[in-house]
Amino acid sequence: MSKHRNVELARLQAMNVPRIRPHEGSSVTAVVGQSAMVNGVMVHSAAINLADAPVPERKYAANACGVVYEPGNVQLLFAQRRIGGDELRSLLVIQMSPAGAVRLLAAAAQLSPHSLDDLVQQGIVQVERSRPITVEPAQTVEMAAGFCLFAAGPDMATLDFYQASAFALSAVPHAKKLAVDPVVRIDIRTSLLIGLVEQLRELGPKLPQMTTESPK
């Protein structure tokens, strides 16, 4: 009996070796940086290039947006309002962790050649705050995402959301790659996107501290 149990334990340990599992998603290169113990857990930093990831097949055009915060969870709301009124036609909810929201803010600050702040300071775009979204319409869809790649011009912005499973994240230090699933592409007015980013910034201390150190 003891020998059988040892064999089963060895098999489980082999199965739990971090690796990219089949069908986890499309692999993008990860440049792994420094590691550190945080509250007894080893945390690895890495830089990934989402530009190498496939474009999401699902598309959604939003003319309203918002942010809802709960401890441990940030909900990004993207909606379509009906013509001639305040009623919502549909709503898309993107569930993100606070760390995912911080990554989105970092991406917003690193836009090139002009950041969102540059567009506002140069008078190219005005900040637009969407009317609060307080009701879920019948057509409401919820998705999870941990990463966002986006581009913005004076008029419109495009946000591509991606998700990586816990299995994929655990494989990064060993595989030097991250498997990501394309979730959805959002098209929205740049002015509304800037208002959304402002709402995220207002969460302030509720979000984890952002690190600016690049992997070496």
What do you see in this structure?
There is one protein chain. By secondary structure, the protein is α+β, with helices and mostly antiparallel strands. It has one domain (2-206). The protein is 25% helix and 38% strand. The protein contains five helices and ten strands. It has helices at residues 2-15, 98-109, 116-121, 166-175, 190-201; strands at 26-38, 41-48, 59-61, 64-70, 73-81, 88-96, 140-144, 147-152, 156-163, 177-189. The strands form two sheets. Strands 1, 2, 3, 8, 9 and 10 form a six-stranded mixed beta sheet that branches. It has a four-stranded mixed beta sheet with strand order 4-5-6-7. The model is unreliable at 1-15 and 211-216 (pLDDT under 50).
Instruction: Count every beta strand, where a strand is a DSSP E run of 2 or more residues.
Output: 10
N-to-C terminal Cα separation, in Å? 49 Å
Mean pLDDT: 84
Q: Could you tell me the radius of gyration in angstroms?
A: 20 Å
Helix-strand category: alpha+beta
The proportion of residues in beta strands is 35-45%
Task: Based on Cα principal axes, name the global outline.
Answer: globular
Helix content: 25-40%
Residue runs with pLDDT of under 50 for 5 or more positions: 1-15, 211-216
Secondary-structure element order, N to C = HEEEEEEHHEEEHEH
Sketch the major β-sheet: 6 strands, mixed
As for the number of domains, it is: 1
Discrete helix count: 5
State the oligomer.
single chain
